[in-house]
Amino acid sequence: MSKAQNTVLRIFNALKKDPLGMAGFILVSIILFLTVFAAWLAPHDPLEIDVYNRLASPTAAHWLGTDQLGRDILSRVLFGGQVALKVSLIAISVSMAIGLVLGMLAGFGPRWLDRILVVSFDTVRSFPTIMFALAIVALTGPSLNTVIGVIIITSIPVYARVVRTQTQALRERDFILAERAMGASMFRILRYHVLPNVAAPMFILASMDVPAVVGMEAGLSFLGLGVSPPTASWGSILNDGYSYLRNSPWPIIAGGIPLIAVTLGFTFFGEALRDIFDPKLRRKDP
Amino acid sequence: MNGPVLEIPVNGPVLEICDLSINYQTDHGALRALRNVNLTVPKGKIVGIVGESGCGKSTLISAIIRLLAPNARIAGGVVQFRGNDLLKLSPEQMRNLRGDEISMVFQDPMTSLNPVLTIGRQMADVQHRSSSSRAAKNTRSLQMLERVGIADPETQLRRYPHHLSGGMRQRVAIAMALMAEPSLLIADEPTTALDATLEVQIIKRLRELQHDFGCSILFISHHLGVIAELCDEVVVMYAGEVVESGAMREVFSAPQHPYTQKLLDCDPARIAQKTRRLPVIEGNLPSLVHLPEGCIFKDRCTLSLPRCATERPRLLGRLPGSGQTAPVSVSGTPHRSACHLLEEPA
Fold it and tell me: What's the ipTM?
């Protein structure tokens, strides 16, 4: 059996004993399924306007009702999910990759490099994210790419700091010292010995980071800094619904529930993963 | 960039340390961890270093492989490895020597292997200098595992360190260290973390391997029985100084320095009478920041003379046959010790 199969099996066996983790896993699977296949599952075109049918309550044709322009909310939520997941996928993988490299360099490299990197991480973290996003949008204009860029820049320090701490703990370990005593270069140690040891915590962190990134995208789109108007995003659905809250509660409900589902699903799943991969528990393997 | 960077002469001692002194910069001042240490590892011999915790054994080996703590300063001395001063090599040259010409086995086999990589992966990784194919590296790993006495090496290569027992892990570590057939193997208390039966097995195996590979071994231990079993020569260290050195039999049968005598008296294997209390050496190690004047051992010595308080004894060898003392010559392995008692008429 290959190592990957082994890992999948181990995760699955552990989830069976952890109902909350299993719930998270199921929730995440449902969300991923619905958004990935949104184009087939959506009953309507999310941009199709039907002014005679605006702000309708749920009907057989429009399961979640319609918004102020008569667009089908269910379809908009499904396509909005695509935006949210696209943003989180790109932003998290890019910031994780950069964070891994910078964090390992800070944790393993010379002290002056560590100082410089830590100061820059702290500098980035000290800006309020929304203010930072507003400043960037003022310069470049609202677009999804700007949202992704802002999220990447503000997330790099989060990953880098975790990797840095992990690397610092690892560099004192005997097997890293043994590697050095056996003539391994810094690159070799980082690539073959530190990276596999910090990778598992990274994926757990990434899983728990999805709700934050999705929330950030929704927040920026809510403020009109993200997707441009006709495109659906959970944030813009909420913003549209907010203006017409007296007329119909459905846009707010429909835009809010997926955000809650994503938060709960990825958090539970991430916590279950953490329990599975925790190095302290891991040692007890037969 | 790769390949041999140094001219390596064939004869002469593999390792020769002359007057090596190392300080650690601390908030309280310089901690003088090693002072004028002299040590020779002849070709094809096993040299043991004995001494209690804090005597500078670890600092000494870190200095040899040049992996000293960041606050360590080399205050003087030479570490000659096959004719090259290791302290003068560039970091790149030094790195090429490590794992190739000088290898190391660590104390705790439970922590000296990477927990997330298979044994096979780690053994292949150690061969990173070799340009041979993956299959050839694998064959080489199998061969090495067999030589260190691991049953069913094929299966072991696919397993993770936590699947293996401590003894097996230490065998794997030894196999990895000997992979490149180094001329010097440094073993830092490799049996301390193992139980007694395993200890004997590992020691026997090391002896055989040393014979087969023809390498020299610098063996660090505080277990006198192991040193006696394994080593050709022994160096006794106390508080950062070499207090006695010589052929193992001579040092163990006729110890010259009071510290060596006491150390031997404390060995449980040597206790003849039944007793409720194990023998100890009274007193503590002196402060290495504020070094006392004179002999470093005088406060714990029961035989100290007036001059011990003021005059630091040098490491001296007796000329064989005559009772006279002679200045230390670094080459050769006469029985030497740093004690004023030697100069007293018997």
Answer: 0.75
